[in-house]
Amino acid sequence: MHHDPTDRIESSVELSVVIPMFNEEEALPALVGRLRPVLDATGEAYEVVAVDDGSTDTTAEQLMDLRVTWPQLRVVRLRRNSGHQAALTAGLHRARGHYAASLDADLQDPPEKIPEMLALARSQHLDIVYGVRADRSTDTGFKRCTAGAYYWLMRRVVGTHVPAQAGDFRLLSRGALEALKALPDQPQVYRLLVPWLGFPSGEVTYHRNQRVAGHTKYPLRKMVLLAVDSIIGFSVAPLRLATWLGTLAFFVCLGVLMYTLTVYAAGDTAPGWTSLIIAVLFIGAVQLICLGLLGEYIGRIYTAVRQRPTYYVAHDTDTAHAPATAIAWPGPRRGQGS
C-alpha cells in the first residue's frame, strides 16, 4: 500500500475535520460560517482539511483566501476530479488529529454534532461514532426510497453490522484511522468498510437538512453505481446469484425438454417453435448476466494488479515544500464522484 510520505501524527492537533469538495463555491461561505464557530467553541486544537477534488469553479481560490484569516484551515488540492471517496481518502490519510471527523460541504449533515460525537467517543472510549439520519423528511420521496433500499440491501448482503442510514458523516479515532490505512489497497466505500473493522462504536442521531446551496453531486446514475460497487466490493453474493440463475435455467430447460418430448410423442411438433425460442432467449440472457457478473469481479482484480494511482495530490498547504505525491487505492472510480 502506498503511504503519504508527509504523513505524521502531531499530538498538538486533537481534532481533524475532513471535507471533500467539488465545485462548492456557493456553499462554502455558509459552511465556514457554521463550522468555524462550532470548532472554536470546543477549545480543542483542531485543523480543517479541505480536499479540493479538482474543482472547476472558484472553490480553490476561496479556500486559499480563507486561510489568511483562518490558520487552522488546511487545503489539499488534487490534480483532477477523482471522486468523493478518493478525496475523502486523501483527507483521512493526511489528517493529523487524534480524532478525525468527515463532513460534506453541503451542510446536509450538521457540523454542530461534531462536539457531541467527540464527547461520546471520549466518555465511552469509542473508536467510531456514526452520524445516523433519524429524520430525512427534507429529502425527496424518491431520495428516501432509494436510500432506504440501499441500506436494506447492504444490511442483507454485507451484514447487519452496517448501520442503517449512516453515510459518510462520522468520527474516527487515531486507532481506527491507522487500521484503515493499513488495509490493502481496494475501492474504498467507507460506509461499509468502517463498520467491517469491528471497532467499538456509537451513534449520534440528527435531522438531515436540505443542501444549503448548489446541486447534488450524487445523481441517480452515481447512486446506482455506488450500490453496484458496494455489493461487488464487499460480497460474493452476485456470483452465487449467477449459480442460482444457472440452476433455474437448467430446470426450465428440463421442463421445456419434457414438453417437447410430449408434443413429439403426440405427433404435433409445430407448437414447439415458441417453446424453443423462449428457451434460447432465456438461456442467452442468463449466460450474459453471468458473464457480466464475472467481468465485474475480474475487472476489479485486473485494476488492483495494475496498482495505478486513483488520485494525485498536487498541493498541501501543510507541506508546501514537499513534492506532490501519489497515494492510491486501485479500483474503479465510477459512481464515486464527489
Automatic annotation (TrEMBL):
<keyword id="KW-0812">Transmembrane</keyword>
<keyword id="KW-0328">Glycosyltransferase</keyword>
<dbReference type="InterPro" id="IPR029044">
    <property type="entry name" value="Nucleotide-diphossugar_trans"/>
</dbReference>
<keyword id="KW-0472">Membrane</keyword>
<comment type="similarity">
    <text>Belongs to the glycosyltransferase 2 family.</text>
</comment>
<dbReference type="InterPro" id="IPR001173">
    <property type="entry name" value="Glyco_trans_2-like"/>
</dbReference>
<feature type="transmembrane region" description="Helical">
    <location>
        <begin position="248"/>
        <end position="267"/>
    </location>
</feature>
<feature type="domain" description="Glycosyltransferase 2-like">
    <location>
        <begin position="16"/>
        <end position="179"/>
    </location>
</feature>
<keyword id="KW-1133">Transmembrane helix</keyword>
<feature type="transmembrane region" description="Helical">
    <location>
        <begin position="273"/>
        <end position="298"/>
    </location>
</feature>
<dbReference type="Pfam" id="PF00535">
    <property type="entry name" value="Glycos_transf_2"/>
</dbReference>
<protein>
    <submittedName>
        <fullName>Glycosyltransferase family 2 protein</fullName>
    </submittedName>
</protein>
<dbReference type="InterPro" id="IPR050256">
    <property type="entry name" value="Glycosyltransferase_2"/>
</dbReference>
<keyword id="KW-0808">Transferase</keyword>
